[in-house]
Amino acid sequence: MARPTIQDVAREAGVALGTVSNVLNHPNRVRSSTKKRVQNAMETLGFTPNQSARLLAGGESTMLGLVVPRLTHGYSLQIVSGVQREAERYGHHVWIANAADDVAAMAVCIQQFLSAQVAGLVIQSFDGHPLRNMAVPSRTALSCMDVQGSEPGYFAVADSQAEGTLVAEHLIAAGARHIAVLGISKHRAHQDRAQGIASVAQQSLEVHFEFIEEGDWCSASDGYELGERLAARQKSERPDALLALSDVLAVGAIAGVQAAGLQVPDDMLVAGCDGNPLAWTGGVPLTTVVPSGYEVGRRAVQQIMEQFDLAKLGELTGEPAPRVVDVHQAIVRPFLLPRESTGAMQKHGAKPDLNVGAYL
Prior knowledge:
Layout: H1 6-13, H2 17-25, H3 32-45, H4 51-56, E1 63-68, H5 74-89, E2 93-98, H6 103-115, E3 120-124, E4 141-145, E5 153-158, H7 160-173, E6 178-182, H8 188-203, E7 208-212, H9 220-231, E8 241-244, H10 247-259, E9 269-271, E10 288-290, H11 293-317, E11 327-332, E12 335-337, H12 344-348
Parallel strand pairs: 1-2, 1-3, 3-4, 4-5, 5-11, 6-7, 6-8, 8-9
Antiparallel strand pairs: 10-12
Helix pairs in contact: 1-2, 1-3, 5-11, 7-8, 9-10
């Protein structure tokens, strides 16, 4: 069977060929009732637009490319959801590429999207690096996530320093007076969290903060070993709270504390600092601070749309699109999620169950 053409769609919908073209390339120019009729005809015929042909014909791409370093962390999944939902609001679609924690693979993904002539690129960077070495054409809108902008560009950033501040203040309010901070600060986000915690420590002289630079952020077994070791200390030297730089590390620490014969939160409070729902399945619901990946993704798409608007303004005035000469930075604040590991449910009577899907 021959593949249906744009002419077939126009005939099925009872509209002019130009109307179908506008639905594909300039949907804002078509009345909603007419657009619906054309879309129904496409669905009936099984018509799929040829993206390359549309671009050659002068049409505008409706595709955005989203590159994430991993799909094994709840935060990245939140970003994907935020980007997709916000792009749909503007009539755009999203192609998603997972670089699987490989910087070279991420560069390949970006080049493939550029070859496909996507209208815009949204990139969640590796460890705060915006991949500035990538040659992105000026006509391609670009927003980098999770990197603080120090040079011209568009950036959507979770406030990692505020994550550390929020959870440290929460532990002090919960009664902690000796807080052990767990985790190796080798990534930018972890360094920022540790800086936020340190700022609270400087202002809370009545609380002893013990920074233990051990434990890989994605290793529950490291957290287990640290929790067990610290719980085995003499009571006078034992911290009454553990603050891990990641949720995976914190969940492991809870298990280690329990293995040493202590109870969480009765003997020791434990909190994470990551916002990773994929690590929230332990026996004791984990208190954590959540960077809103959904909102970061949403803001990134808004920045892409802002660049589209500037380009269209240039078309109307006959002037080239203005170059980006300023830093356009959207900082997204995190929120605290107090749960049983710091006694929050016992004090406030919150429900023990949590709809993890709501955070994705």
